[in-house]
Amino acid sequence: MATIKDIAEKAGVSIATVSRVLNYDNTLSVSDETKRRVFEAAEDLSYKKTPSRKINLPKVAIINWYTDKEELDDLYYMSIRIGAENACQDLQLQTMQYSYHEMNKINDEDIAGIIAIGKFRKKQVEEINMHTSNVVFVDFNPDEDKFDSVIIDLRRATEKILRHFINKGHTSIGYIGGHESYMDEGMDIEDVRIEAFRTFLEANHLLDESSIYTGSFTVEEGYHLMKRAIKEKGDQLPTAFFAGNDSLAIGCLKALHEENIPIPERVNIIGLNDTSIAKFVYPALSTIKVHTELMGETAVSLLLERMTDDRSVPKKVVIPTELIIRDSSF
């Protein structure tokens, strides 16, 4: 397993800097480029190389739903991208990166296929498909009758967390979540996590709407939402919280620390994604492991089938998740 020392050596910074970056210390004054080197080193060191066949093909375009700045706030898509890039590198495939608003720069004659990471509105899906029919969507399934996709079952992941809390005796469970929206329209995308949270707890007669807090999927927002929950709920603060991703969960930890609320003795926190930094925060974060590197690898495999085997029937691959219990929960 990679250590903070390993990350520091790969990123070319001090161990102290790595520790503060991974814990989102907002008193640290370093550039976004330095943060990116640290996060990408952490992700790269967690990547497990697997034997693969060597082939020579034109370039693969990777289209990111997130901008470079947004990747630093939520490492989920960065982790998928690095998994795809490393799988391409193993296969000696060149990659070209584009953000969602740079698709007009793609030269159709220069690419053999596209891996689209994130959620794209209908018009963008059509634009992507105009460049090539060899397309794989990751974390999104725009049309399972037409496109290959690699996704996770967020409903089942949410239920794993809630079932764990209930089995541990928690009867007051809160939710710290975020909203996603199409970048150029500002239209909210339905979030399976919060819908699954409500449905599962209502079925178990444990739903408390006043313990649901939502904003955006960032560390800063997790911090502010937990601060708000602490202020509003007081002594009735739930004993357990499901945070919609690890970034939110890390913000929750920071807020609870500031208020001297013991974790996990008073409040349990479980996040979602198991990004490479989850084990380095304090206390080490319990979370649902999403095999993001495998999502990226699987996208490359599906793309290769399209490009080399002339497969025309679309595939939807659902990657399972795993509950990882560390120090932030019992």
Description:
It is a single chain. The protein has 330 residues and is α/β, with parallel strands linked by helices. The protein folds into two domains: 4-152 and 291-319, Rossmann fold (3-Layer(aba) Sandwich); 154-290, Rossmann fold, CATH 3.40.50.2300. Helices cover 40% and strands 19% of the residues. The chain has helices at 4-11, 15-22, 32-46, 68-73, 76-90, 122-131, 154-167, 192-203, 219-233, 246-258, 292-308; strands at residues 59-64, 95-99, 111-117, 135-138, 148-152, 173-178, 180-181, 188-189, 212-215, 240-243, 268-273, 286-290, 316-319, 321-324. A six-stranded parallel beta sheet has the order 2-1-3-4-5-13, with helices on both faces. The longest helix has 17 residues, at 292-308.
- Class from helix and strand fractions: alpha/beta
Strands side by side in the biggest sheet: 2-1-3-4-5-13
- Total beta strand runs: 14
Average pLDDT number: 91
CATH superfamily of the largest domain: Response regulator
Question: What portion of residues is helical?
Answer: 40-55%
Number of self-contained structural domains? 2
CATH topology of the largest domain: Rossmann fold
Let me know the largest β-sheet.
6 strands, parallel
Spatial extent as radius of gyration: 20 Å
Form type:
globular
CATH class of the largest domain: Alpha Beta
Q: List the uncertain runs.
A: none
